[in-house]
Amino acid sequence: MKSFKNPGRYPFMMLLIFSTLILTVLGYIGKDTVYAGYSVNLFKNPQLAVVFEGIKDRNYPWKAAKDDTSLDINKEVADNSEANVDDTADENASIEKNTSENSHKDDTIDKTTGSKAEDTGKTTGEDKADNGNSNNTEKEDVSASGGSKDAKDSKDAKDSKDAKDSKDAKDPEGAKDSENAKNPEDSKGAKDSADSKDSKDSKNSKKPTDSKPGAKEDTYEFATVKESYFKDALFIGDSRTVGLSEYSGWEDPTYYADVGLTIYDIFDKKVAEVDGQKITIEEALKKKSFKKIYVMLGINEMGTGTAKTFTAEYKKVVGKIEKLQPDATIFVEAIMNVTKKKSDTDPIFNNKNIKERNEHLARLADNKKVFYIDVNEAITDNTGGIPEKYTFDNIHLKAVYYKIWTDFLLKHGVVKK
Predict the structure, then answer these.
(1) Residue range 91-115: average pLDDT?
(2) Residue range(s) defining the domain that contains residue 168
(3) Domain SGNH hydrolase-type esterase: where (predicted)?
(4) Please, what is the Cα angle at 394 between 389 and 396, to 5 degrees?
(5) How many structural domains does the chain have?
(6) Strand stretches in 202-326, DSSP E
(7) pLDDT digits (tens, 9 = 90+) for 132-164
(8) Are residues 233 and 193 in the same domain?
């Protein structure tokens, strides 16, 4: 102990002590920014170890101070985003108001259908050429006033094909939907066709629909599956997927996951183990084939870019995976929320920002090849966040609660015939 009275005699030891303290402090400063995606454990994985792990992933400690100064800027961006949303809402309200007024005008026109039909008979072919919009209005008036009688009144208008069709069509609705409709049965068929087209937009539709004549494209709804369904599945993700690989109890799926993985470096990091070697995910997808590929990324990117730029990059990644694995069904997993406590105190890692990005991610799904699934439906409480008892750091799940995630996956399989 006497030797420590003269610390100047041991410069290397003093340098080691001071550098350790500095790195530890920087680690705590960046725990909600640079190191938000890393697991911290007082005994197994202390903050200093997280700093060195971050350096390995090129997340350097001095970024912590830089990220702190950017919080105000991110907050200002978020405020501007809210203002834009409000402006958009006002604009939409104005459009709806104008639409309502136009609808009222259309009702007024319908009440004067009889006089309009008489005017139609007097209209010459030259007048119709000069005023196409008037032509369309007259066609609607002819249909609405009873079809056959008004079509006869407009028989003199030889250039109007629509008037002739209106004469043949007994059902006014059928005359609008189909030029060749000659009876109510044809009209019904046209309406059924429109309903079929609307059903194509349903996310959970499993019936095949025709997007083009002669081309069938199937959409599917989620189905309950067994654990064996995941034997040919691949899970790609960050620290949360690392947890899934360790605590799900599922050994059959393949996991290409890393605590610091992001949508921006997904094909650059060597995180895939194939034949005992660490290679990039892109290289691995060229060597192995999978039937289902699950991707959960986004929590590490919360402070980078906007929801729009993030989703644009995500779309590129999904497109590349489709090319590398043409036979695979791809699942875009929503970013898992954080606790309400974390959300209420963090300007970046909060559930409002996560929800915005998830809404953009949902648009990547076509329910044919790419599907969007949101585990937040099963894992969050009525506050919209993960219950605090489920997590040890307000972000990552405790081992026992990964069963909620796996149960959700078992209820959201896609079985293609």
Answers:
(1) 46
(2) 114-199
(3) 235-402
(4) 90
(5) 3
(6) 209-212, 215-217, 233-237, 254-257, 272-274, 277-279, 292-296
(7) 444 444 434 434 334 444 434 444 444 444 434
(8) no
